[in-house]
Amino acid sequence: MTWDDAVEEVLAGDLTGALGYRTPAGGVVVQAVAPIGLRDRARGRIGFTTSLGFSKKLERIALDPRVCMAFHAREHGTAGGTLYALVQGKATVVEQPSDAERGHVRAQATKYLGEARTGAFWNRWLREYYRARVPVWIDVDRVVTWPTLDCAGTPVATGEPLPDAPPEPQAVPGKGVGPRLDVARAARRLRGTAHTLVGFAGADGRPVVLPVTIAAADAAGLVLTAAWPPPPGGRRAGLLGHSYREKLIGLRTRQYTGWLTVSDDGTMRYAPHTEVGYVAPPNKTLLLLLNGMLAKRGVRAAARTAPPASR
Length: 311
What we know:
This protein has a single domain, classed as Electron Transport, Fmn-binding Protein, Chain A (Pnp Oxidase, Chain A). The strands form two sheets. Strands 1, 2, 3, 4, 5, 6, 7 and 8 form an eight-stranded antiparallel sheet that branches. A seven-stranded antiparallel sheet has the order 10-9-13-14-15-12-11. It has helices at about 5-15, 55-65, 100-115, 120-125, 125-130, 185-190, 285-305; strands spanning about 15-20, 30-35, 40, 45-50, 65-70, 85-95, 135-145, 155-160, 195-200, 205-210, 215-220, 220-225, 235-245, 250-260, 270-280. By secondary structure, it is an alpha+beta fold. Helices cover about 25% and strands about 35% of the residues. The radius of gyration is 19 Å and the shape is globular.
C-alpha cells in the first residue's frame, strides 16, 4: 500500500488529524490527535502520538485495531490545497518504544510543535508526559480522497476498493436513541469550534470520519448538513468539534458519542448521549503545566487499574 505525492504532502504537512476508532457496541469515537508528520511511505504506514494515560482509547484499539485518520484541516501546517484524505488501516500501539523510537518522536514533535522545555523543574514536571507519550502506527489498507475539504464529489480510493453499498442501519440501543444531553448547549459549544466531524462504521466495519455543519438544534437533536451523501437509517456515531492554534498551543475540543439518524428525506440528525471536552490555554507555559499534571494523573490512574501481572 502506498499513496501519491498529493497525499504525501498532506500527511507530511497537516498539524492535526481526526482519529476514528471502534467501540465495543459498534460505534465510533472521534478524537483530535497530533500526527507530527509520522509516516513511512515505503512501508505503507502512518502514525500519531498518544498518552498511556488514555487507557480506554488504547484498550479499545487493542480490542479492535481498525481505525481511520482524517486529514481535514490546513491551518498552521505546511500543506496547501483543499485535498481531504481519509486513511484507513489497523493500528498498533508501541507501549515500550526503544530509545531510537523515542528520539524520533521527540525530534518530530520539536519540528512541528516547538522546542521542549528543559531544566531541573521541567525535567521533573514533564517526566511522565514525555515518558507516557508513545507512537501509534497505522498499517494503511486504504486511502480515500476528495478534492475539497467538505468532501463534495466522488471519492477516489487507493488500496482496498470501497464497499459497493452504504452500511446497514444498526440496532437501536436499549436506552433509546433520543438526546441525553442539553442539545442547545451542545450546539453552542460545537459552533464555537472551527471544525466539526462525524464518525461511524462503514459497510466493511472500518471507521469513517467526515466533515459536517451544525445547521440547527431542536428537541430531537442536532441537525447536521454535509456535502457527501449520508448513509440512510440510524447508527451509533461520534461527533467532534475542535479548534487549534499555531503549534497546537491553545486547543478547544468537544467530543460526543450518540446516535445518528438519516430520515427518508435525507435529513441528518444527531442525538448526543455523552460529552467530554477541554480548553487548553493559548500559552505554552500554562499548557505544559497542565500537560504535566494530566500526564501524572493519567499514569497513576492507569497503574491503579492495571492487572497485577502488568504492574
